Amino acid sequence: MTQVALNGSDLLGLFTHFLILSLLAVGGAITTAPDMHRYIVVEQHWLTDAQFTSSIAIAQAAPGPNVLFVAVLGWNVAGPLGMIATLTGILLPSTVLSVWATRWGTRHRDTIGVRAFTAGLTPITLGLLLATGWLLALPYLEVPAHRWGALGLVAVTIAVMTRTKVSPMWLVGLGALAGVLGWV
Length: 184
Prior knowledge:
- The chain has a domain of 103 residues.
- The chain is mainly α.
- The model has no long low-confidence stretch (mean pLDDT 89).
- The chain is flat and about 55 Å long.
């Protein structure tokens, strides 16, 4: 994968963009993947659609925290400096805010405002996760040879996750098997 030689201004822009996204990452950094895609692929043209999707897939397949995909995106954009810019940008504000909010929320957990806020995060998180799923599935849905396999995989995943307590890792394995067999 070819990396772009970013100047200081571009690296600062990359850092700042991920810094802002950090504060929107309700439900995890993966929920902001559609905006990362817009910025990195559509606006800046630093990666292609395939490179972006592959970066996320590689990081999600590796053991460790899900936020690692941000480091892989940064690395694929601009090497070590890109990785530092994206990972620091996504982790710094959310970490500081989380520590403060957790301490404050623990002291005020029984108030109606805190209960309403935490209940309100559920639909936001669900919407962001659906947008991310759509973005990651779209390249497969647009290829006629893979469309039905991808739609079938999505349908099976929804059915299994809503009706059973089966570990999502089995569905990841099913997706990998479908990919190896060329169904998606």
